[in-house]
Amino acid sequence: MSVPNKAIRVLIAEDNLLNQRIIEILVKKMGWDYTLVPDGQEAVDACLADDYDVILMDIDMPRMNGWEATIEIRRTNIHIPIIAVTAYSEESFRKKSFEAGMNEFLSKPYNKEEIYQTVLQYVKMN
């Protein structure tokens, strides 16, 4: 897999420590820059404070869940790709994710190739 010359800036919103470490390892292996936040409110705040190429967003988080955070982010940034990365695999969660404004829905356990290809696809589109 070829890596783009420009470092991709990824915002990771994930509250589970084990999942944080797993996604950090995957992102580091690609040479991407990243910011990790533990909840949806901090994801919204990070988007207002800085520019990212893509967001990897968990759904079930404290303070503000991924759907609520996506709705808030979409009020000021309609273009940033938001990819749900969640333990939920039910169609109702997928549908609600797209209704909230997410661009893609990936279920855990993490499939590194799927994450890489999805991020690269959306970054290339912007």
How many separate domains?
Answer: 1
- The strand count comes to 5
User: Which fold does the CATH topology refer to?
Assistant: Rossmann fold
CATH architecture title: 3-Layer(aba) Sandwich
Largest sheet: 5 strands, parallel
Number of helices: 5
Strand content bin:
15-25%
Write the layout of secondary structure elements.
Blueprint: E1 9-13, H1 17-29, E2 33-37, H2 40-49, E3 54-57, H3 66-76, E4 82-86, H4 91-100, E5 104-107, H5 112-125
Parallel strand pairs: 1-2, 1-3, 3-4, 4-5
Keywords:
single chain, Rossmann fold, five-stranded parallel β-sheet, disordered N terminus, alpha/beta, 126 residues
Structural features, described:
With 126 residues, the protein is of the alpha/beta class. Helices cover 46% and strands 18% of the residues. It has a five-stranded parallel beta sheet, with helices on both faces. α3 links the parallel β3 (54-57) and β4. The two termini are 20 Å apart.
Give a brief rundown of this model.
With 126 residues, the chain is of the alpha/beta class. The chain has one domain (9-125): Response regulator (Rossmann fold, 3-Layer(aba) Sandwich). It is 46% helix and 18% strand.
